[in-house]
Amino acid sequence: MHQRSFHYAWIVVAVTFLVLLVGAGIRATPSVLIIPLQQEFGWTNAEISGAIAINILLYGLVGPFAAALMERFGLRKSICSALALLALGTGLSVFIQASWQLKLLWGVVVGLGSGMVAIVLGATVAERWFQSRRGLVVGLLTASSATGQLVFLPLLAWLVSSQGWRLVTMFVAFIALALIPLVILFVRDRPASLGLAPFGGEEVIVTLSSRRNPAARAVGALWNGLGQPDFWLLAGSFFICGASTNGLIGTHLIAACGDHGIPEVRAAGLLALMGVFDFLGTTGSGWLTDRCDSRWLLFSYYGLRGLSLLYLPFAFDGGFFGLPLFAIFYGLDWIATVPPTIRLAEKSFGRENAAVMFGWIAAAHQVGGAFAALAAGSLRTGTGNYFSAFLSAGIMCFLAAFLVLFIGRSGPSPFWGASGDKGKGTAGALQARES
Questions:
Q1: How far is CA 319 from the centre of its chain?
Q2: For the chain, domain boundaries
Q3: Which SS3 state, helix, strand or coil, does residue 208 take?
Q4: Cβ within 8 Å of residue 158, ≥6 positions away
Q5: Residues facing 199 on adjacent strands
């Protein structure tokens, strides 16, 4: 069948891109609040990092349950519920007076809302709406998620410095609410609801909504995954990915720049620069994932990231060849790991289970991020600098580069090449148990 010049799938991608961009930007907002909260309330870096750690942890743990909720209730209802949670948590935070309130609102409520509009949403959209070019779509949507954390920060940092942190929380709450009508108008659950085949496909695929309890679906998928070596390799490497991105750089780079006399707005500009190059790097990674062996892509990404983190402590006083060079190099690799990781999860567990299983793998990513956010804050409080945190993260990335080479080698089926053909081993076992 001749592929239409324009497919409604791209409208769904465009709206999802905005949702992921905003959701990630809201989740990352506390990184520009650390210093003003310290100044107003006298809270320590470790106390504030505790709230951020809860946020990152829930951001990941809710992923597999969010994927199951999307199977049960559809994309539109799930996304609107998540945006409402984000608006609630950020809007009420103007009233906080104690650190436990920060943990409740920015840790729990915003963590739950942002976790529902995270990378798992992008994986679900790509799986449902695309038969071909899924790697490219995952790359685009992943780039929006990561870029949102970075591109918003210069504006938010400027608002903090000029108008105060409370205006920032009201601003992001308004943006979350403004997206809800857009989602209601344009997002549809599956191509079949419009009488369409997925992009690149020839047949309309009618899939009934799952009747299973979303929690049971998510927990059952985890139980199946725990018996597979590939799950541990993917989750372990992604734990390190989260520790070396969201948890360390996304949370603490602005504060580390402050230690070297670099203003917040300039430091946030470095993160925005990373965001621009992340968009290029992650989109390019999606394109490469459709063509190359995902294991070797991950080996390259983690190895290069490790080198950049070892360089970072020496970059603060290096002029152009210091932080700007780090931002460009690190930004290209910020979260380029996601498209090949999703592809490997699909090959290991089957396409129908990929979103939920990747939700658990992404949960490990956020556990790593929460660990690093808390550990780096504690190391900064204890030692007075971030040197040991950057060094440890770099070494962990080299470990991840080694681990990913073993993915797909332990099952009864051979590793599948870049063509995207799915094997029969772990995927077949998982699908049999799920049915």
A1: 31
A2: 16-188+221-413
A3: coil
A4: 265
A5: 130
- How many Cβ atoms sit within 10 Å of the Cβ of residue 311? 17
C-alpha closest to that of 65 among 351, 356, 354:
356
Assigned superfamily of 16-188+221-413? MFS general substrate transporter like domains (1.20.1250.20)
* Integer Cα distance of 344 and 52 in angstroms: 29
- Tell me the C-alpha distance between 223 and 219, whole Å: 6
Distance CA 412, CA 223 (A): 19
Return the beta strands (E) in 47-117 as ranges.
none
Q: pTM higher than 0.85, yes or no?
A: no
Three-state DSSP class for residue 199 = strand
List per-residue pLDDT tens for the chain, 435 residues long.
444 568 899 999 999 999 998 888 888 788 788 888 888 888 887 788 788 878 877 877 888 888 888 888 888 999 999 999 999 999 998 888 888 888 899 889 998 998 888 878 888 898 888 888 888 888 888 877 666 766 677 788 888 888 888 888 899 999 999 999 999 999 988 888 888 888 887 777 666 555 666 678 778 878 888 888 999 999 999 999 989 987 888 778 888 888 888 887 788 778 777 877 888 888 888 889 888 899 999 999 999 999 999 999 888 876 667 888 888 888 888 778 988 998 898 888 877 777 788 888 988 887 888 788 888 888 888 888 889 999 999 999 999 999 999 998 765 333 333 333 333 344 443 333 333
Specify whether the CB–CB gap between 151 and 217 falls below 8 A. Answer: no
Alpha helix ranges (H) inside 312-337: 323-332
Bridge partner list, 130: 199
